[in-house]
Amino acid sequence: MNPATFNALRSAIGLEQQTIASALGLGAHGKRSVERWCATITPPAHAVTYLLEMVDRYDKFLEGEMEQIDLAADTGRAIDLIVFKNEASFLTATDGKSGLPWSMYSSAIQQAALYAHMSGVEFAVEYVHIEAKAP
């Protein structure tokens, strides 16, 4: 996969460069490596594999949201799309078990909002802020 394709896919799903660096265990300067993979240097196979796995997760999540929107269209009901104000709220609400990083979740919800609009489904985006649990 060339750098432009790697970056286009990464950006399209809202996957942050730092998230890739952390997931791949690249250390303190790992984000700089990911930046190069997105610009000039062919990304290594393990990075491409990770990215494609995240694309699949994103696709499955978004497909589920779109199914709910289609159901709402069929039944004539409105839907709410939940957006978390920050990563801490997202992690608290999902206990870190969503399968997606916050940035990807937020990107998918934006795509779901666009899909709902284009499908003629009445919807509202709701911002949620949840205080982090005390240790």
Outline of the structure:
The protein is mainly alpha-helical. Helices cover 62% and strands 9% of the residues.
Which characteristics define this entry?
single chain; 135 residues; mainly alpha; Putative cytoplasmic protein; two-stranded parallel sheet; 6 helices; 9% strand; Aca2_YdiL-like; YdiL_sf
Derived from helix and strand composition plus strand pairing, the structural class reads mainly alpha
**Name of the CATH superfamily:** Putative cytoplasmic protein
* Low-pLDDT segments, ≥5 res: none
Strand order of the largest sheet: 1-2
Helix amount: 55-70%
Distance between the termini: 43 Å
What is the total domain count? 1
Query: What's the rounded overall pLDDT mean?
Result: 92
Put simply, the count of helices is 6
Pfam family, one: Aca2_YdiL
InterPro entries: Aca2_YdiL-like, YdiL_sf
Describe what this molecule looks like in 3D.
- This protein has 135 residues and is mostly helical.
- It is built from six helices and two strands.
- Helix 1 crosses helix 3 (30-39), helix 2 (17-23) packs across helix 3 and helix 4 (45-75) packs parallel to helix 6 (102-119).
- The longest helix is centred in the middle third of the chain and has 31 residues, at 45-75.
- InterPro entries: Aca2_YdiL-like (IPR015060), YdiL_sf (IPR027910).
- It holds the Pfam family Aca2_YdiL.
Task: Chart the SSEs and their pairings.
Layout: H1 3-12, H2 17-23, H3 30-39, H4 45-75, E1 79-84, H5 87-94, H6 102-119, E2 123-128
Parallel strand pairs: 1-2
Helix pairs in contact: 1-3, 2-3, 4-6
